[in-house]
From TrEMBL:
The modification 4-aspartylphosphate is found at D50. It comes from Brachybacterium equifaecis. CDD domains: trans_reg_C. Gene3D superfamilies: 3.40.50.2300, 6.10.250.690, Winged helix-like DNA-binding domain superfamily/Winged helix DNA-binding domain. This is Response regulator transcription factor. Residues 1-114 form the Response regulatory domain.
Length: 226
């Protein structure tokens, strides 16, 4: 189920029609408060979230939804510079689209996030990896820092699990995207940096003080202290 949060009725209708044609059940909300209420009531798999909404702005909607759901969120915004601002805000969205967007592309992005492996629960080789204070349980998909559970979005968790699976190995942004999003990934590589920055913040580190996720200059990232 995809919840489409968009106050422009015509756009919302077109997006829903395309999603329905691609086989998804949809619901729609036209205001911020309604979006939060419906996200809670319907537990959608994906939320397509417009930032400019009446009642409550999209970022606040996002924050409230994140208190009870880790569903995928694809943000749509009218201004491309907005995306850069969002990078700094740690909003925990999984993807961004700038308006005007092609509805076809939006559907492709929804399909891409839903194809991502959520949890490797069928994987018997589940293990607990420890990096100093950081404990990653790959079977339970849980992450603890100094004993406290770290709440991660599905994307952040996917990135961390991928890196932790091969400590010390450098992954390119493209490799990480493919591991987390699948090879149908069609977005911009720099989104990896956005998610890594958010992940680092939750792990209490910065690029300069990296204890866990280390930047490998000219390549990408690897797990382990530099
Ligand atoms: Ca709007």
């Amino acid at each position: 189920m995809v919840l489409v949060v968009e106050d422009e009725a015509a756009l919302s209708d077109v997006v829903q029609a395309y999603l329905a044609k691609a086989g998804y059940a949809t619901a729609s909300a036209r205001s911020g408060p309604k979006a939060v209420e419906m996200a809670r009531a319907l537990a959608p798999d994906v939320i397509v979230l417009d930032l400019g909404l009446p009642g409550l702005d999209g970022l606040e909607v996002m924050r409230r939804i994140r208190t009870f759901s880790d569903c995928y969120v694809l943000i749509t915004t009218a201004r491309s510079e907005e995306v850069d601002r969002l990078v700094g805000l740690s909003v925990g969205a999984d993807d961004y689209l700038t308006k005007p967007f092609s509805v076809r592309e939006l559907v492709a992005r929804v399909q891409a996030v839903l194809r991502r492996p959520r949890a490797e629960s069928g994987n018997a080789s589940g293990m607990v990896c420890t990096f100093g204070e950081l404990e990653i349980d790959t079977a339970a998909q849980e992450v603890r820092l100094a004993g406290r559970m770290v709440p991660l979005t599905p994307t952040e968790r996917g990135l961390l699990m991928t890196l932790a699976h091969r400590p010390g190995q450098a992954f390119s942004r493209r490799q990480l995207m493919e591991a987390v999003w699948g090879d149908s990934w069609i977005g911009d590589d720099h989104l990896v940096d956005v998610h890594i920055a958010n992940l680092r913040r939750k792990l209490d580190e910065t690029a300069e003080s990296a204890r866990f996720v280390t930047t490998v200059r000219g390549i990408g990232y690897r797990m382990g202290k530099g």
